[in-house]
TrEMBL record:
Family as reported in the entry's similarity comment: Belongs to the class-II aminoacyl-tRNA synthetase family.
Positions of Mg(2+) 1 binding: E432, E439
Enzyme class: ligase
EC number(s) given by UniProt: 6.1.1.6
Name by which UniProt lists this protein: Lysine--tRNA ligase
Gene (name only): lysS
């Protein structure tokens, strides 16, 4: 049996909690709980009470007025309605104690589960001596349960009038201070369990994320797409221009990389005859941290045989529209002080047009482009003119794109996996979706000519650094294309950024449960 904590140590709140743990054990109660899965979710209890109709002991029902909105006296109402009028349905709830108050022969608790909060009334007369002694040992943060009538108090607050109490788990650490709370962003992300448990908002954000992901799968499944799982370990990192994480397989004595994209293996499946495929999965890029970048993030990639980039625009609008419906509310969302109107169809404008509007120069005027690059301190040495144009575009144009807007028809030379326009091979059938200067989606009419693909890979590899993801050609992918891949549209959407925009979170680390963090000092 645990020994009592010396009285002088009880000023330490953690020691005091351990002393209460000892007392709970001495009462013959398991402080780590047991099965209680027949409970009522608090959110369901709130819905039950929404109609304010409760069943009396004689089986008849009575309407409970909403005392929060009406100047009515609860005791008088009970007297007018006779014995048992205060009896609502019996419920069994469980959750974390967010607030404990009271003294003498009664306590009030506010407990929280992942669907909401409810008040618990604990009276010594109602629960009996043993349960009341147990209630004295409750602390904020403990997980407890209660069984009793679900009623309204005379102030109109929904309350469980406890008849039985249950103890599920003792919190041995100290919860965040009530008013200051857990506010430091780094600590919230590092201690996500405490952030979810004690802060208002994060639980809803991450449950909305689940709804968004579920909606995406539903949209694609209903449209005949097949979800697949590609490898996360690659012999050649491809499908994007990014630096990969490297690892080593001991048994085969070979270097492998974590995938930086999902693209090339999904296209191999289209060669094999899987005409509509998608994957929702993690990708890894050995790059920096920022409010919009995490080295490990979630990507959706979709490929549709016999489609093109316009098919992907339509699909993108449908995916986002359905996700908005799934999370509730209308098409207008607030983000960082801005209102985004997601009402489809989204605006579409060419890369060249947007470049000209933002810079005041014709993107085909190489001399003017080079002069502007110099003014922006962009290094042009050894770079293809289109690479220089794109660096200017990233600096001068992207931040002006409020969106949602599909930027279409990129320079072909910077799109090695994309089919060219038939009437203008200098232009690639590619779009990027921008919202408030943030790239959310990228899509192509996929290049399926194996000879041209090999040529473009070779051209792109010239001058690349060894550690760059595109510094090695994926010969097997080219071989796959020689087995005939159908014409297709392909789409990639950054799920974390989509969740940011739909839930109003300004940092990508606030929509990833466990983001990569710098070492704690």
């Amino acid at each position: 049996m645990n020994q009592p904590v010396p009285e002088e140590e009880l000023t330490d709140p953690r020691a005091a909690r351990r002393d209460k743990l000892r007392q709970i054990v001495e009462m013959g109660i398991d402080p780590w709980g047991s099965r209680f899965d027949d409970r009522d979710l608090i959110g369901d209890c709130v819905e039950k009470a929404a109609s304010n109709t409760f069943v009396k002991e004689d089986g008849t029902s009575v309407e409970l007025p909403d005392f929060a909105d009406q100047d009515l006296n609860y005791k008088q109402w009970k007297a007018d309605n006779g014995p048992g009028a205060e009896n609502g349905p019996t419920v069994r709830v469980a959750g974390r104690i967010m607030l404990k108050r009271g003294q003498g022969k009664l306590f009030f608790l506010t407990i929280r589960d992942w669907t909401g909060d409810v008040q618990i009334f604990i009276g010594k007369k109602q629960v009996g001596d043993e349960f009341f002694e147990l209630a004295k040992l409750f602390d904020n943060g403990d997980l407890v349960g209660a069984e009793g009538k679900l009623v309204h108090t005379n102030t109109g607050e929904l309350t469980v009038f406890a008849e039985k109490l249950f103890f599920h788990t003792k919190m041995l650490d100290v919860p965040p201070e009530k008013h200051a709370g857990l506010t430091d962003p780094d600590l919230r992300q590092r201690m996500r369990y405490a952030d979810l448990a004690f802060n208002d908002g994060p639980m809803k954000t991450f449950l909305d994320r689940t709804k968004i992901v579920k909606s995406i799968r539903s949209t694609l499944d209903d449209d005949g797409f097949c979800e697949v799982e590609g490898p996360t370990l690659h012999t050649v990192a491809g499908g994007a221009a990014a630096r990969p994480f490297e690892t080593h397989h001991n048994a085969l004595d070979m270097k492998l990389t974590m995938r930086i994209a999902l693209e090339l293996h999904l296209k191999r499946l289209m060669v094999g005859g899987m005409e509509r495929v998608y994957e929702l999965g993690r990708v890894y890029r050995n790059e920096g941290l920022s409010p919009r970048h995490n080295p490990e993030f979630t990507m959706l990639e979709v490929y549709q045989a016999y489609g093109d980039y316009e098919s992907m625009m339509d699909l993108t609008e449908q995916i986002i529209s359905d996700a908005i419906v799934a999370t509730g509310g209308d098409y207008k969302r607030e983000f960082d002080g801005n209102t985004i109107d997601f009402t489809p169809p989204f605006k579409r404008e060419t890369y060249a047009s947007l470049f000209g509007k933002a810079t005041g120069i014709d993107p085909a005027d190489e001399a003017a482009v080079l002069e502007l690059a110099g003014q922006l301190h962009i290094n042009t040495s050894g770079k293809h003119p289109d690479v220089v144009r794109n660096e200017i575009f990233e600096e001068k144009v992207e931040d002006t794109l409020e969106g949602p807007i599909f930027v279409i028809d990129y320079p072909a030379s910077i799109c090695p996996l994309t089919k060219r326009k038939r009437d203008n091979p200098e232009i690639a059938e590619r779009f990027e979706l921008f919202i408030l200067g943030m790239e959310l989606a990228n899509a192509y009419t996929e290049l399926n000519d194996p000879d041209l693909q090999e040529e473009l890979f070779t051209t792109q590899l010239d001058g690349q650094e060894d550690e760059d993801s595109m510094a090695k050609m994926d010969h097997d992918f080219v071989r796959a294309l020689r087995h005939a891949m159908p014409p297709a549209g392909g789409l990639g959407i950054g799920i974390d950024r989509l969740v940011m925009l739909l839930t109003g979170q300004k940092s990508i680390r606030d929509v990833i449960l466990f983001p990569v963090l710098r070492p704690q000092q």
